[in-house]
Amino acid sequence: MPCCSDDVCSSRTAMGRYRVVLWIVLAINAAMFLIEIIAGLAAGSAALQADALDFFADAANYGISLFVLGLGLHWRARAALLKGASMGLFGLWVIANIVWHTLTGTVPSWSTMGVVGIAALGANLVCLALLYAWRNGDANMRSVWICSRNDVLANIAVLAAAVGVFGTGTGWPDIIVAAVMAVLALQGAVTIIRQARGEVRSLAARTGVTSPVRGR
């Protein structure tokens, strides 16, 4: 006799695959964080440093997703709230870094930005392909997908900044791209938090438990 129904077995198999995918993308993001933060500091690039911090935040987010993967919707939704908040903090940090680079007039190394940007884009495309099947899941899964999608857009923007720095000889393209990345992080944070709050309120309504998560 089978130890579980077809639906339960299928669900367990899918979650097992998702867990493996999360471990893979976590390792990729952790490695790219180390590469980009060193390159970003050496090149004096606000965009590369922002992208490096994004890799770090994503690695932490994937770790949180792995921790709550076997837990109930309540805990997964609250984990998504935490990840949304971390994305918002990342956006604010990038804005502060932009102000500093603007005041100091830094001109980054466009060649380093280009080489590292291509490597980062390749890494994030792999992550995006691995996570594609779970893009329409619950708030926790969707938050992972949004992070990876934003990363690909950010990498393309970093490459555009490298071309801009080469063409203009100034740091303004780098600063502009870093600002775009900050906006993407803040928009992603709002999307994730909104869906997670909706899931928490919906679960509270079904169970009759008052949710501490307020808001319209």
TrEMBL record:
The chain crosses the membrane at residues 20-43, 55-73, 80-100, 112-132, 152-169, 175-193. One of its GO terms (cellular component) is membrane. The keyword Ligase does not apply. Residues 22-196 form the Cation efflux protein transmembrane domain. The keyword Iron-sulfur does not apply. Its main location: membrane. It is found in: Membrane. InterPro entries: Cation_efflux_TM (IPR058533), Cation_efflux_TMD_sf (IPR027469). Keywords: Membrane, Transmembrane, Transmembrane helix. It is a multi-pass membrane protein. GO terms for molecular function: monoatomic cation transmembrane transporter activity. It holds the Pfam family Cation_efflux. This is Cation diffusion facilitator family transporter. It comes from Martelella mediterranea DSM 17316. The lineage of its organism: Bacteria, Pseudomonadati, Pseudomonadota, Alphaproteobacteria, Hyphomicrobiales.
